[in-house]
């Protein structure tokens, strides 16, 4: 018995399953996603899901997973899937009754990818003929929820308990407020969503047990320190104490690299820190008359000399901008992947006689983006920058996947299995 994973991508579901000691067979057409899966040791069939026969899986499938491509439905695209939605509903109904009308309906679709969300029903109908699978988990963007409800209604007539709804990945420890439409179905247990483990604001302990933890911030996930304002101190030449910019030219390309090289330090509290007084530090020196020449350098409060870093999703005026002490917004990477950047702002309350020049925006790296999607920091991404970012943006966050899968596998969820930054 195996787990079949349609539109398996670079392995979000597969990585979660591997943590539980379970292997799936992933069906995926994208060559670079398949290379990533292979490097991660995952079983993969490179194929077009819409053309692959179901017969090899009949009588052998315990679990069924599907995350159809979201481009036709996503707010980041033209959303022609919404226009095609009646055709997709018709395809699901037809496939559930054993009638394959995909070719006719596809010809009428405005986006050929729209009909891929009906493809799981072709597999489910064939598998149900022998009482498979035992459980089903499906995921898509929120606008697909009405379609998942149609699936649920059909699965209930086949003996499944079902649940559909919208969940936020941040509520399950993913450092990203990624909302997704979920379908859960089971022949052996009541289908219910896993209880959230995190909340926007940390909850106190009560008579009913421990409250939910605060959402995981980008800074925590990337190993920058869990702080209210986890931002770098201005440094020079890879050492502490001032300099023209946090990342001296040619030495560091990213915030994470800079931390690894010791060129910036996140402050875990609001202690007062003594900065350099060199004029090259990016701080304009105060007039010499302000203090004796032999006096020690003055100390400034943390808010007076720290940069506040945020992640900006793109260059558009309506781009999502989140501070590093918050979860990221929904990550999606298409033609604007190069526009997703870390941007610095000066802290509030800076005295008038202190001048600072914020560093230029820093492009997010694939490693950072993968961690914010809850993949391990050393996940073996394959392909060039565009190919890698496309895989990451389309992937299911493994930590969310694990929460959804654990009840069906009768396995406990251990958060220590999903550490992020190395």
What key attributes describe this structure?
422 residues; alpha/beta; 15% strand; Rossmann fold; 12 helices; 7-stranded mixed sheet; 4-stranded antiparallel sheet; 2 domains; single chain; globular
How large is the count of helical segments? 12
What best-fitting shape do the alpha-carbon axes yield? globular
- In CATH's first tier, which class of the largest domain applies? Alpha Beta
- Global structural class: alpha/beta
CATH architecture label of the largest domain: 3-Layer(aba) Sandwich
Main beta-sheet annotation: 7 strands, mixed
- The tally of beta strands, per DSSP, is 13
Q: What is the CATH superfamily label of the largest domain?
A: Vaccinia Virus protein VP39
Task: Tell me the β content.
Answer: 5-15%
What is the number of domains? 2
Residue-averaged pLDDT, rounded?
Answer: 80
Uncertain stretches: 226-253, 258-305
Distance between the termini: 35 Å
Helix content: 25-40%
According to CATH, the fold-level topology of the largest domain is Rossmann fold
Q: How big is the Rg?
A: 25 Å
Set down the secondary structure blueprint.
Elements: E1 2-6, H1 12-19, E2 24-28, H2 31-39, E3 43-46, E4 61-66, H3 80-96, H4 102-108, H5 119-128, E5 135-140, H6 145-157, E6 161-168, E7 179-186, E8 198-199, E9 213-214, H7 218-221, H8 255-260, H9 302-305, E10 307-312, E11 321-323, E12 341-346, E13 362-363, H10 366-372, H11 385-394, H12 398-409
Parallel strand pairs: 1-2, 1-4, 2-3, 4-5, 8-9
Antiparallel strand pairs: 5-7, 6-7, 10-11, 10-12, 12-13
Helix pairs in contact: 1-12, 3-4, 3-6
